[in-house]
């Protein structure tokens, strides 16, 4: 039947235009020579004017990395990465000396972020909410390739003792905090990609919320890979001191390029007594084209430590981009009564591959964790949920609830669920529920008979499927995420 | 309004409709009755544009346009509505979201401005009230956890919102007890108007006591074999469909 052909055409038409962030910014870059060796590590450290201890730490990580093997257990398949074929440092030339204020940021960069819909003009946002007499909803740290180009609302936040800046600045201005916490959740020897990150990380965000302070606005970092043949290795460190609260969001995009680019980030969260960190990700790296060419390798280590009693760390992720996703945002539930949450939507279309999930390590008494993972596969994509729930002997009364749902669109994609449960305490309760479903022809026709196009129908049905997760996102981003969910699947049915 | 001429259709290569002729004028309610397997549901799916129902001959003209050339969603936007025999569940999508998306898609097609959240809410509350449905129902996920009667009433609410000019009610009475049937019929009757036509597909005369048709047709083995007024339904109820033969005879 001609319908199949038509479908193929439709998919092609849509996928070619769907990634609207695929443009490149023409800006002169300050690049490190290609390749990876101790000199490059020293080069990066020198570029950033880092203290000796940090260089030593980087070198230690680099030397350890040389002894490690790339992990192969994930259900992803890709050609061997040539680590010598990348630039490990790329910065817009103008930002050699970091701009002191927004007025000094290269207009080309401001235009880029405007195009991406990221507000870097404080005035503009302030105007929008001033009527309400409150602080603006979102402060942004913009990371372009290897450097942070601007951070908004720093002053406003400083008034409450909140530190929100690039990690490079934090290393210069708050070395005691960085030294105390960096590597304390994800040690330099943790895993292949995290160790590589320790050696060559370039920038990222740093947040410190002092005791008893509730951060009055959403903090967010917007990562953009622009230069070609570069890897982005950012580090984010968030510390929530006793009784504090912060909600943080990261977003990511990259130009459309035929080559694969590596993004190996490390995120560390530390929550002290009664502190709460809510960390949301909307990941929309370039996924590659409809034939699986190009796209970002998103190999990320994210981990939060609930160090204090009654602390809480909540991860929410909407993963729609990247050619390959390899990430397991985790919680170490050390403090008694601490709570870990993981809400995830992972959408894979065309040739995308995602192996993602979480680890909940219950150490303290009455620790609780909730995992809700929704995987959606379309095209020829493969999506895997991989999760570990570990209850240690002293975790009296620990509880976990896990729910994994997979939705398949078409008959050439796959969904896999790999849960690991280890309980070493008799009083612990661990629950796991899993379902797999397909979008039914009945549902599609029902929607179409009410006037919805097939693509709108798929968007609606998938959004319904993800609702439990999407409602966890900060309101400012939930609408955006809903649209993204629909866009990522455009052309997946015909 | 709607003119069906010598319509032939196949499902999985098997011919189900073997030359249907039917003209429906504005404001008229036609009932189609017939035994199991006579092609009643196939007719409703062919008219509403479901995939897998292939038209092999004949034509359908709706308000001067070639209905068969349109996609299902275009037909809906042009004013064709199908009330389902089994309304479908859509988990996680609230009735309001679903209907707002649908209504705005239809309005867009008609060149009307989309309704904002407030306007929409006002409208759906008014419509729900006129159908004696409570607010709670419009907030719930589409048909999830609804009883049989609630599902059918929910479809009628959708019809009230979308204001089609031609509605097909596919065995709306199936699975309903008498009280639920009355409620649904009341809803349908409240939507009857001189501009709106309906095609009521049913097995039993029972429904037609509540939704009184202007014309009744007997569909047997792919053809309309007899047409008459509302009294034909009563006659069928008494005699059954035996006189119209068996599949082999057709």
UniProtKB/TrEMBL annotation, chain A:
Indicate the segments forming the SUF system FeS cluster assembly SufBD N-terminal domain, all copies.
145-215
Any idea where the SUF system FeS cluster assembly SufBD core domain is?
223-465
Which InterPro entries does its entry note? Fe-S_cluster_assembly_SufBD (IPR055346), SUF_FeS_clus_asmbl_SufB (IPR010231), SUF_FeS_clus_asmbl_SufBD_core (IPR000825), SUF_FeS_clus_asmbl_SufBD_sf (IPR037284), SufBD_N (IPR045595)
Q: Which GO annotations describe the biological process of this protein?
A: iron-sulfur cluster assembly
What family does the database annotate? Belongs to the iron-sulfur cluster assembly SufBD family.
This chain's protein is named Fe-S cluster assembly protein SufB
TrEMBL record, chain B:
For this UniProt entry, the molecular function terms from Gene Ontology, in alphabetical order, are: ATP binding; ATP hydrolysis activity
Highest taxon in the source lineage = Bacteria
- Name the UniProt key words of this record, in alphabetical order: ATP-binding, Nucleotide-binding
Q: Which residues form the ABC transporter domain?
A: 2-246
The UniProt entry, under NCBIfam families, shows: sufC
Give the family, as the similarity comment puts it. Belongs to the ABC transporter superfamily. Ycf16 family.
Question: Could you identify this protein by its name?
Answer: Fe-S cluster assembly ATP-binding protein
Q: Which organism is it from?
A: Nitrospirillum amazonense
């Amino acid at each position: 039947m001609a319908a199949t052909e038509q479908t193929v055409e439709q998919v092609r038409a849509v996928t070619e235009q769907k990634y609207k962030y695929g443009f490149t910014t023409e800006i002169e870059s300050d690049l490190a020579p290609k390749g990876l060796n101790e000199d490059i590590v020293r080069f990066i450290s020198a570029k950033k004017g880092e203290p000796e201890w940090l260089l030593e730490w980087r070198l230690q990580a680099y030397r350890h990395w040389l002894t490690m093997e790339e992990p192969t257990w994930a259900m992803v398949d890709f050609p061997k990465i040539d680590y010598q074929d990348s630039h490990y440092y790329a910065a817009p030339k103008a930002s050699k000396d970091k701009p002191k204020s927004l007025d000094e940021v290269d207009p080309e960069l401001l235009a880029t972020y405007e195009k991406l819909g990221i507000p870097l003009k404080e005035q503009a946002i302030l105007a929008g909410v001033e009527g309400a007499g409150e602080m603006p909803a979102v402060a942004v740290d913009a990371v372009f390739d290897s450097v942070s180009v601007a951070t908004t609302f720093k002053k406003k936040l400083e008034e409450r003792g909140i530190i929100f800046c690039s990690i490079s600045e934090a290393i210069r201005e708050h070395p005691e905090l960085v030294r105390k916490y960096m590597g304390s959740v994800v040690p330099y020897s943790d895993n292949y990609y995290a160790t590589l990150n320790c050696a060559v990380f370039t920038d990222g965000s740093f947040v410190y919320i002092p005791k008893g302070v509730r951060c009055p606005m959403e903090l967010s970092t917007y990562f953009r890979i622009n230069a070609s043949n570069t890897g982005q290795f950012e580090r984010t460190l968030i510390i929530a001191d006793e009784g504090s609260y912060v909600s943080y969001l990261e977003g990511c995009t990259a130009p459309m390029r035929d080559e694969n680019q590596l993004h190996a980030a490390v995120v560390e969260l530390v929550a002290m007594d009664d502190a709460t960190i809510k960390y949301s990700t909307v990941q929309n790296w370039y996924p590659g084209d409809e034939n699986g060419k190009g796209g970002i390798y998103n190999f990320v280590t994210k981990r939060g430590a609930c160090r204090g009693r009654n602390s809480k760390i909540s991860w929410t992720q909407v993963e729609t981009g990247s050619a390959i996703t390899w990430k397991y945002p985790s919680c170490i539930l050390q403090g008694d009564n601490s709570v870990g949450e993981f809400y995830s939507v992972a959408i894979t279309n065309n040739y995308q591959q995602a192996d993602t999930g979480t680890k909940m390590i219950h150490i303290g008494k009455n620790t609780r964790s909730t995992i809700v993972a929704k995987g959606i596969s379309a095209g020829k994509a493969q999506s895997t949920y991989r999760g570990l729930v570990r209850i240690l002997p002293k975790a009296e009364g620990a509880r976990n609830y896990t729910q994994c749902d997979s939705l398949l669109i078409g008959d050439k994609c796959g969904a896999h669920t790999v849960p690991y449960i280890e309980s070493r305490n008799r009083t612990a309760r661990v629950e796991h529920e899993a379902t797999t479903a397909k979008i039914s022809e009945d549902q599609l026709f029902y929607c179409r008979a009410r006037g919805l196009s097939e693509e709108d129908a798929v968007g609606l049905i998938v959004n319904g499927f993800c609702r439990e997760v999407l409602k966890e996102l900060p309101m400012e981003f939930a609408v955006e995420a809903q649209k993204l969910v629909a866009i990522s699947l455009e052309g997946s049915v015909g | 309004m709607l003119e069906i001429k010598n319509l032939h259709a196949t499902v999985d290569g098997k011919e189900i409709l073997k030359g249907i002729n039917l003209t429906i004028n504005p404001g008229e309610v036609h009932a189609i009755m017939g035994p199991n397997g006579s092609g009643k549901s196939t007719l409703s799916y062919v008219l509403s544009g479901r995939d897998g129902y292939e038209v092999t001959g004949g034509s359908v003209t709706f308000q001067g346009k070639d209905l068969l050339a349109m996609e299902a969603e275009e037909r809906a936007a042009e004013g064709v509505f199908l009330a389902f025999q089994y309304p479908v569940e859509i988990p996680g999508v609230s009735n309001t979201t679903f209907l707002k998306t649908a209504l705005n898609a239809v309005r867009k097609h008609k060149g009307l401005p989309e309704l904002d959240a407030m306007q929409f809410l006002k409208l759906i509350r008014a419509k729900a009230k006129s159908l004696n449905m409570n607010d709670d129902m419009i907030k719930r996920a589409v048909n999830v956890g609804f009883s049989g009667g609630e599902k059918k009433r929910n479809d009628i609410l959708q019809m009230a919102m979308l204001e089609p000019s031609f509605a097909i009610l596919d065995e709306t009475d199936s699975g309903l007890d008498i009280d639920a049937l009355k409620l649904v019929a009341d809803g349908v009757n409240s939507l009857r108007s001189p501009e709106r036509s309906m095609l009521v597909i049913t097995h039993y005369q029972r429904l037609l006591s509540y939704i009184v048709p202007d014309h009744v047709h007997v569909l047997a083995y792919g053809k309309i074999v007899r047409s008459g007024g509302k009294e034909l339904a009563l006659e069928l109820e008494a005699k059954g469909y035996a006189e119209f033969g068996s599949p082999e005879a057709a």
